[in-house]
UniProtKB/TrEMBL annotation:
The keyword Cell wall biogenesis/degradation does not apply. Residues 166-262 form the HTH araC/xylS-type domain. The lineage of its organism: Bacteria, Pseudomonadati, Pseudomonadota, Gammaproteobacteria, Alteromonadales. It comes from the Bacteria. GO terms for molecular function: DNA-binding transcription factor activity; sequence-specific DNA binding. This is HTH araC/xylS-type domain-containing protein.
Length: 262
């Protein structure tokens, strides 16, 4: 079992928030690497009076989420989402690779954006009982092994366009110099029309949306480090002007950069 120690991104107030919970992330075994991006487990133990609301940037991936009394599948999220933590609790999660559960869906992928489904709708009638039993397990290794044994029954080889969708999303995430679909087209050697078609079928959100999401990851990171002001960020991330950055920030996050910092 290999831990994912990469820097956490897309989390509001990352440094200040981390003290409220314990987050562990693990890569899947090799045979599931095309199906699962990572396992993620969160535990917290807060005082009776304390409630921590964790906000996160949108996410294009499907997630399997195990809580104390229910198991659900979350579709891609297009807006900021929040989770309230109080007293003592935990969440066990699986982040699926882009397009990897497409064969399990009954409707076009875009219809699952901003939706939650009972786990039985995706993984069968008995899945909730099987997965809920993992909630009380103390060992991360045992949880990962049990989830792997369960989920390997649902894998299927991906086609070339699914693989391209994964590669395009990774390219946007990892290349901080991609600011437009035109730049993505040039870097990937695919036409804009092909990219749009791939995203529509295999991601459910537009490439422009994902580019903006990862640009805002960078903005949050810079604000969290506290070493740049908004004009520096406009220049660093090659926004046209300050108004453009503020508009993107407010549309996705719900407040202006100045309000976020305060």
């Amino acid at each position: 079992m290999r831990s994912n120690n990469e820097e956490v991104s897309g989390v509001f107030y990352q440094q200040a928030s981390a003290k409220h919970y314990d987050l562990r992330r693990y890569y899947p075994q090799a045979e599931l690497a095309g199906f699962i991006e990572q396992f993620w487990f969160v535990d917290w133990h807060l005082s009776e009076q304390k409630v921590h609301t964790q906000k996160n940037l949108p996410d294009p991936n499907f997630h399997l989420v195990i809580e104390s009394r229910r198991v659900r599948v979350m579709g891609p999220v297009s807006k900021v989402y929040a989770y309230d933590m109080c007293k003592q609790g935990r969440v066990l999660g699986v982040k699926f690779k882009i397009a990897s559960i497409l064969h399990l869906l009954k409707k076009p992928l875009c219809e699952y954006v901003d939706t939650e489904l009972p786990v039985r709708d995706i993984f069968g009638e008995t899945s909730e009982h099987v997965l809920l039993s993992l909630y009380s397990c103390e060992s991360d290794r045992d949880i990962c092994n049990s989830l792997s044994a369960f989920l390997k029954n649902y894998t299927t080889p991906i086609n070339i366009n699914q693989s391209r969708a994964v590669d395009l999303c990774a390219l946007i995430k990892n290349d901080s110099n991609i600011f437009t679909v035109e730049a993505l087209s040039e870097k990937s050697n695919l036409s804009k029309r092909t990219i749009q078609r791939i995203f529509n079928k295999y991601v459910g959100l537009t490439p422009k949306w994902l580019i903006r999401k990862y640009r805002l990851h960078q903005v949050l990171q810079q604000f969290d480090q506290g070493n740049l002001d908004i004009l520096d960020i406009v220049s660093l991330l090659e926004y046209t002007d300050q108004a453009h950055l503020i508009r993107d920030f407010r549309e996705v996050i719900g407040v202006t950069p100045g309000q976020y910092v305060k």
